[in-house]
Amino acid sequence: MSTNSDIDARTDRILDVAMELAEADGYDAVRIRDVAERADVALGTLYRRFESKEDILAAALERMVQQFYEAVKIAPLEGGTAEERLGTFFTIATQALGDRPKLAAALLRTVASGVPELAGRVLNYQDTMNEILITVMRGNPSDAFPTESELQLSRMLQNLWFAEMVGWTGGLQDTDAVLDHLFAALRTLLRSTEIS
Q: At residue 194, does pLDDT exceed 70?
């Protein structure tokens, strides 16, 4: 009989292997049979947890973002203003993806895939990103509901960062340009809100 820890350990192995394959050789290297074999799980076990490689990669992204959120709650980012803290967050996140370009491209491709079955995972990712960004804006975790301004700013920044990172994966710009564009937008957007 399987225990929850067995299930969690198997799922973690599947996600870890998928990320390793994507990091080494990109999106196309994440093949279901290879993932199952390297994760030491039966193909049926993998398919009971995930519908496709996109589902696996989307789950890996969910896990990465959730881990980052837990870290931000424990150790808030430094900075005296929302702009400084958001700038720090986007620098860390952009550099983390920039250091693993093939994995980053695979994750971005997955989010943009339009696979209907991924909608729930993509929404979970976006919701967690909203929680991270609002926590960073405020400077610390809070149980207070986000304001409409906080939610709008978070959504706009997510969309802008995603678009900039897609441009980066396409070779249109380097990560320094991504951050330059993002910081310019951040200054402009913060001027139009009460967030400081």
A: no
